[in-house]
Amino acid sequence: DAGVTQSPTHLIKTRGQQVTLRCSPKSGHDTVSWYQQALGQGPQFIFQYYEEEERQRGNFPDRFSGHQFPNYSSELNVNALLLGDSALYLCASDLRLAGGPGEQFFGPGTRLTVL
Amino acid sequence: QKEVEQDPGPLSVPEGAIVSLNCTYSNSAFQYFMWYRQYSRKGPELLMYTYSSGNKEDGRFTAQVDKSSKYISLFIRDSQPSDSATYLCAMSAIGPGRRALTFGSGTRLQVQP
What we know:
- The structure holds two protein chains of two kinds.
- By secondary structure, chain A is mainly beta.
- Chain A has strands spanning 5-7, 10-13, 19-24, 31-37, 44-50, 53-57, 64-68, 74-78, 87-94, 105-106, 110-114.
- In chain A, the strands form two sheets. In chain A, strands 2, 4, 5, 6, 9, 10 and 11 form a seven-stranded mixed sheet that branches. A four-stranded antiparallel sheet of chain A has the order 1-3-8-7, with no helix packed on it.
- Chain A is globular and about 40 Å long.
- Chain A starts with a strand and ends with a strand.
- The mean pLDDT of chain A is 94.
- Chain B contains no helices and eleven strands.
- In chain B, strands 2, 4, 5, 9, 10 and 11 form a six-stranded mixed sheet that branches. A five-stranded antiparallel sheet of chain B has the order 1-3-8-7-6, with no helix packed on it.
- Chain B is globular, with a radius of gyration of 14 Å.
- The N and C termini of chain B lie far apart (37 Å).
- The model of chain B has no long low-confidence stretch (mean pLDDT 93).
């Protein structure tokens, strides 16, 4: 049973560029969340997708956008990259439960470096 | 003030010791509590998932939640060098549109052989 997969593993971009990160959820999961983890910090919630719609959003600017496909996979797009966007980007998936979060399983992350 | 506070460590213990890791939080709406383990340059791995107050045990790991004190703990018995990692606590509220996890900054644990 494949867990959460993410691509690419590493990415180097320059300021002002745009980037797309991809995530495939764990088999049987229908909800995908994206987190940003700066060095030495805990992950920060960016947004969550369910049924191809953004359901919840953290305190991130509109430069961060996403998409969920019918097969539950997801993309995270970041426009006009800033040096401060350098971080580990984590995708987590879970099975949506009534009321609270399911057990969220994380992928290995994509390490983005902005020069 | 951060919603979730966690001592960054590092916490260094000898092999076989009992380890206690803790988080405090300020948001009384948090109802779900998790512990993740993260090895260097890897994604977090879910260790424990609990709802509301009480204890939960899984092998060498025990999670405790005290909602009256807004305090959660993870105990690791018979610690091993392979337990050396960063431990993250995470929490979530209940209800539609409130499924995001709020993390602590992590405690780095070193188990010395």
